[in-house]
Amino acid sequence: MRTVRTVSELRAALNAPRRAQQTIALVPTMGALHDGHRALMRHAATLCDVVVVSLFVNPTQFAPGEDLDAYPRHEPRDAEIAAETGVDLLFAPATAEVYPDGFATTVTVAGELTDVLEGVSRGAEHFAAVTTVVLKLLNIVDPEIAVFGQKDAQQAAVVRRMVRDLDVAVRVEVCPTVRDGDGLALSSRNAYMSESERERALALKRALEAAEREVAGGERDAGHVAACARGEMSRLGVEPEYVELVDPQTMRPLSTLNGEALLALAARVGRTRLIDNTLLRTASSKTDSTPS
Amino acid sequence: MRTVRTVSELRAALNAPRRAQQTIALVPTMGALHDGHRALMRHAATLCDVVVVSLFVNPTQFAPGEDLDAYPRHEPRDAEIAAETGVDLLFAPATAEVYPDGFATTVTVAGELTDVLEGVSRGAEHFAAVTTVVLKLLNIVDPEIAVFGQKDAQQAAVVRRMVRDLDVAVRVEVCPTVRDGDGLALSSRNAYMSESERERALALKRALEAAEREVAGGERDAGHVAACARGEMSRLGVEPEYVELVDPQTMRPLSTLNGEALLALAARVGRTRLIDNTLLRTASSKTDSTPS
């Protein structure tokens, strides 16, 4: 595996495989790679000949006061993990390579996709920063496939929308969330937590499970399902930041479960902000809109 | 020449030439083609094997109250002109093909490039609409070269910035303004004018010439040069909307001519809004910043 730091190096490295008609996959990451990232890389390798992983802690997607400075950076270890996982190229640019002097362009997905959940909690600029840097990476690598994690479900939906709207010639693949044995969703931010916080963080997964049980038991009222998840979190000592049921494609808030619903939640455990989600599937019916 | 209406048709049509390693040029237009467009197409044909012209009156870049409905549309004639000029593919999509249901993405170049001149007159949304549609066209066609006209100097500078910022792998070419025998810059909007308005519209070119004479005579004060252009327009019965001297790359207002300066102006003649510009070149000196 080769690590490259500039756009021109990366393009040069991709010239030969592209001329040989090899397919290219991109896995965008902020580093601090864990088994969740490994799953994305492995999935990429099953789909394409060449796997490019980008490693860039994108400063613009952190709001003032968020954890930009604290965000874990372990490039040598990340490079080892990527190499072991069959990655061909690690693109680890400096900030000035991504945002040169005079940089002035932003790619924004507006509306219901971004003005809920993380868009409220982290501010409207968060997703604009994500879509801007993702589009840059797509333009630099020009991959056939780009792989994202379902853990950041809203981000994946926003990226899909941006790709469709701007006619980017790439297929977006979204891989399931990878969890520790006890159910905690893997996140680079888990490293911030003490042992007791790590224990308390399980409240997020338990809340999702409580909601899943409600739905399995026949509950279809979104407000009730969310309240149940919220109650479970509080009971386990974690105050929810948001718990919402939304359409998984549009992020539109749901009042009734009917087909697919995304239950998304966020909370702080100590100073660590965590998010998690689960897809709730119920038999789709038309009883809401058409009288039987 | 073939006319295609959908993104997938266009991509399919470009598959064979791309596989054969042929180079592709894109000339984005809003149709109502004239000799200015012909020059862009001819230039594109000298640089690339395949020339694609897009013909799309982009509704989003017209502010409310502007001339979207009146904008001249003559597709059959445009197709003839394009065919005669060696164009291979005419991409003439419907609005719904460019902006499908749920479209939510905008590409914005912020700051000094867009908050002067046309950005003030036509509103901040104007250039965002331009960069959004241009990026879409670049993603759809994936050309080696995209050709724009110097008549829309600010638009060309904004597109260049967007291309650089988003790492779009395309070379932007800008061709000189084409003028009628009497000096009037060609524009699809010239068709709006009566014969007497057409006569009065020469005031724009005369104003640029008056400024050029001032500079040739040694004048280096930007305020004085602009005032001279403004005076000439008024004298010829046209009230300027703006007359400004700016840096041709950054659009930053200039106080002194020193190197390259863009003199850009806009005015209404009757109900027709016209723009024009000229590049003023003076020997670059450092006398402003370093005492001799």
Output the keywords.
homodimer, 292 residues, alpha/beta, Rossmann fold, Pantoate--beta-alanine Ligase, Chain: A,domain 2, three-stranded antiparallel beta sheet, 10 strands, disordered C terminus
Instruction: Tell me how many strands of chain A there are.
Output: 10
Q: Helix amount of chain A, in percent?
A: 25-40%
Q: State the CATH superfamily name of the largest domain in chain A.
A: HUPs
- Write the element-wise H/E pattern of chain A from the N-terminal end onward: EHEHEHEHEHHEHEHHHEEE
> Domains counted in the coordinates of chain A: how many?
2
CATH fold-level label of the largest domain in chain A:
Rossmann fold
**Major sheet attributes of chain A:** 6 strands, parallel
CATH top level label of the largest domain in chain A:
Alpha Beta
Cα shape of chain A: globular
How far apart the termini of chain A lie comes to: 60 Å
Helical stretch count of chain A?
10
SS-based class of chain A = alpha/beta
Mean pLDDT of chain A: 96
Oligomer: homodimer
**CATH architecture title of the largest domain in chain A:** 3-Layer(aba) Sandwich
Strand content of chain A: 15-25%
Largest interface: A-B, 30 and 30 residues
